[in-house]
Design a protein that fits this description.
The protein has 23 helices and two strands. The chain has a two-stranded antiparallel ribbon with strand order 1-2.
Length: about 475
């Protein structure tokens, strides 16, 4: 054998040896593990806030004798905080640190929850809306800090997988929020129906006025108490993170060119469409989880249930939907190892289109089952869109992340539009207004499916 041949064999052997000893890429490097766990514990906190709030549209409408659209101002105030604070939060984080953003977010979250105390005492819907807004200004800081911080805790190649892993714990908070809404709010409200409350409101006698005042005071106190509890939990988390030394990542040490970043992001078609897709994604989630109460109540009352029992049963189906959502997060996070992100997003959106159509077309409990199944399809949409939209954005990811959080404002105007359709209380052909209103989530899924298809092609070309 010649020296050249021997050298070639040695070189090949060395390459094979190097391949053999190359360690697998870690999703979460050991140096970030404790911090990753601590930040991941924040994800259930905003899941809890989101999903204890959704049933309150129906609750406030009933307690204060408002229309569905008027009650939906809860969602406008709640998700409006995200839109108002996302960009300021990103600029704040860049000037200081991810940790400072987390602490600010937790502080506003706790403050907003505590404001439920005076709001309930004043029996003021406006005061409740302000409390929701302050709370979600905090959630905006929290999400704008936590999501990119998780993305930066390790190799870029595993960033989306890492975020999906952290986001998988978000539905645990959502499930707890729904459970608390069902067991400690919905079922503890005064059993007086909408009609009975309206009769008391129309009665000008002092007895009726006093009776309605007592019912309203009791019901608003029922809504208030869980928020005081979460304020205590959030304050404990604030103290723990305050005393924990969190590592700085590379993305925190780089200067931010705000004007240049905005120009590059606006010129990035993948990012622009990702923000729109995220807006529709959040809007679809909030519509399905808010108005399952209205949909289910309508169905179960037609089957002979009382209004209160129908509302309670509908909220239980909302919990089942969140169980599907939670399971879907873990299953789809595993599937991401083998399936292109864009392809998975397109498949989930197609499922959403199918089940939204079934929600409209099927009668009785079958329609409720279809509405529950939509949640499994929505399970991985938010973090997957988030990861795809920021692909290749480099140092622009911090402001880019803020734009994607700001897209949560889809949870304001889209539910309001659906509530307006429901309030029409007319029959569209053979469909009730409530059934027909689910055309809006269906259209949201159509756009997300198109975005997933384009992302699939783009990611495949980069592979």
């Amino acid at each position: 054998m010649t020296e050249q041949a021997i050298s070639s064999v040695d070189d090949a052997s060395t390459v094979q040896d190097n391949k053999a000893v190359t360690p697998p890429v870690e999703v979460v490097p050991k140096k970030y593990l404790i911090s990753f766990i601590l930040i991941t514990l924040c994800f259930p906190l905003w899941g809890f806030a989101n999903d204890i709030t959704n049933p309150l549209v129906k609750a406030f409408s009933k307690i204060l004798q408002m229309s569905t659209a008027e009650g939906t101002w809860v969602q406008v105030a709640f998700y409006g905080g995200y839109g108002a604070m996302a960009i300021p939060a990103a600029l704040f984080i860049k000037k200081y640190t991810y940790k400072a953003g987390l602490l600010t977010g937790l502080a506003f979250y706790a403050l907003g929850a505590l404001l439920f105390l005076p709001a309930a005492g004043a029996q003021s819907f406006t005061a409740f809306l302000f409390a929701f807004f302050v709370m979600t200004c905090g959630l905006s800081f929290l999400e704008t800090s936590a999501n990119p911080y998780i993305l930066s805790m390790g190799p870029a190649s595993t960033a989306t997988q890492r975020l999906n892993l952290a986001q998988a714990f978000n539905p645990i908070g959502s499930l707890l929020g729904m459970f608390v809404a069902t067991q400690f709010i919905i079922q503890r409200l005064n059993p007086a129906s909408d009609a009975e409350r309206r009769e008391l409101a129309a009665d000008t006698s002092q007895t009726a006025i006093d009776q309605l005042f007592a019912i309203t005071a009791n019901d608003l106190a029922v809504i208030r108490d869980p928020y005081i509890g979460i304020a205590i939990v959030v304050t404990i988390m604030l103290v723990v993170i305050g005393f924990k030394k969190l590592p700085r990542t590379e993305s925190e040490s780089k200067d931010l060119d705000v004007k240049g970043t905005f120009k590059r992001l606006l010129a990035n078609q993948n990012y622009r469409e990702g923000v729109i897709a995220q807006m529709f994604c959040v809007g679809a989630q909030i519509m399905c989880w808010t108005f399952i109460i209205h949909y289910g109540t309508e169905v179960f009352m037609e089957l002979g249930m009382s209004e209160q029992d129908a509302e309670a049963k509908s909220q239980m189906f909302n919990i089942y939907a969140m169980v599907f959502f939670c399971a879907g997060r873990f299953i789809c996070t595993f599937l991401l190892k083998y399936v292109n992100q864009g392809k998975l997003l397109m498949m989930l959106s197609s499922g959403g289109i199918f089940f939204a159509a079934a929600t409209i077309l099927l009668d009785g409990v079958l329609g409720v089952y279809a509405l529950v199944c939509i949640s499994a399809c929505m399970s991985l949409m938010f973090p997957t869109i988030y990861g795809i939209a920021l692909t290749g954005s480099g140092d622009d990811a911090k402001l880019g992340a803020a734009g994607l959080i700001m897209a949560i404002v889809g949870g304001t105007f889209l539910p309001m539009a659906q509530a307006t359709i429901i309030d029409l209380d007319v029959v569209f052909g053979s469909f009730s207004a409530t059934k027909a209103s689910f055309i809006l989530p269906l259209l949201c899924f159509v756009f997300i499916a198109i975005y997933g298809k384009r992302a699939q092609k783009q990611l495949a070309s980069q592979a």
